[in-house]
UniProtKB/TrEMBL annotation:
InterPro entries: CheY-like_superfamily, OmpR/PhoB-type_DNA-bd, Sig_transdc_resp-reg_C-effctor, Sig_transdc_resp-reg_receiver, WalR-like, WH-like_DNA-bd_sf. One of its GO terms (cellular component) is protein-DNA complex. The keyword DNA-binding applies. Residues 124-223 bind DNA. It holds the Pfam family Trans_reg_C. This is Winged helix family two component transcriptional regulator. The lineage of its organism: Bacteria, Pseudomonadati, Pseudomonadota, Alphaproteobacteria, Hyphomicrobiales.
Length: 224
């Protein structure tokens, strides 16, 4: 999920629509609302955020450190002025990247992916479970070196499970990561459908089901 922060509701609603067309969950906040939310939101819900997108905010209304204290997700600032001083100010404020508007939504997504990829340079950007390799940069997983094409939602679920190797994750946690914690138009039970389809594809390729589930406890990947 991508969190958009802007004083103008029309802007946050516009980005929500654009991200939705790309199949990416998003949520919009005014700066004062966001400040309270980021301090109080549960850690498990915050883990669903893949990036923060900063638009127009009154000077001093938002602290980058308040975000950094709670989340390592990329922070991208949108600049509406072709000004070097403005760009440098945003970097000094704490932004990971500054993008001048207008900008295509796919460029924003590409920049987010690039920042996350760089953050993983010191560690592996994939996890290996037996013959299955699961990437964290948007690529399809591989089984015995061969790509296994997956729809976006199923791939994200597999990545999320792989990113939490030491604990079970609940249906709610998976839903928040894939659809966003504020999406009221989609039923949480859709996760079960996605996982069922994912399990079938993995079982056909691996010969076993690598997703272990326990009622009330959640899901985790197993290495057999």
């Amino acid at each position: 999920m991508i969190v958009v922060i802007d004083e103008r509701e029309l802007v946050t609603e516009g980005y929500h629509s654009l991200f939705n067309r790309e199949g990416v969950a998003s949520a919009g906040f005014a700066p004062n609302e966001f400040g309270e939310w980021v301090q109080t939101v549960a850690e498990d819900e915050l883990k669903a955020v893949s990036a923060f997108l900063l638009g127009q905010c009154e000077a001093g209304s938002l602290s980058a450190q308040s975000i950094r204290d709670r989340s390592p997700a990329p922070l991208i600032a949108l600049s509406e002025r072709n000004s070097l001083d403005d760009t440098l100010r945003l970097f000094e404020w704490g932004a990971d990247d500054v993008v001048r508007k207008p900008v295509h939504i796919r460029e924003i997504l590409a920049r987010i992916t690039a920042i996350r990829r760089r953050a993983l340079q010191d560690t592996a950007n994939f996890t290996q479970l037996g013959v299955m390799r699961i990437y964290f940069d948007g690529r399809d997983p591989e089984i015995d070196g061969q790509p296994l094409p997956l729809p976006r939602r199923e791939r994200r679920i597999l990545e999320y499970l792989a990113g939490n190797p030491t604990r079970r994750v609940t249906k709610t946690q998976i839903f928040n990561a894939i659809y966003g914690i504020f999406d009221e138009d989609v039923e949480e039970n859709v996760v079960e459908s996605h996982i069922s389809k994912l399990r079938k594809k993995l079982r056909e390729k691996l010969g076993f089901d690598p997703i272990d589930s326990k009622r009330y406890l959640g899901y985790r990947l197993i290495d057999v």
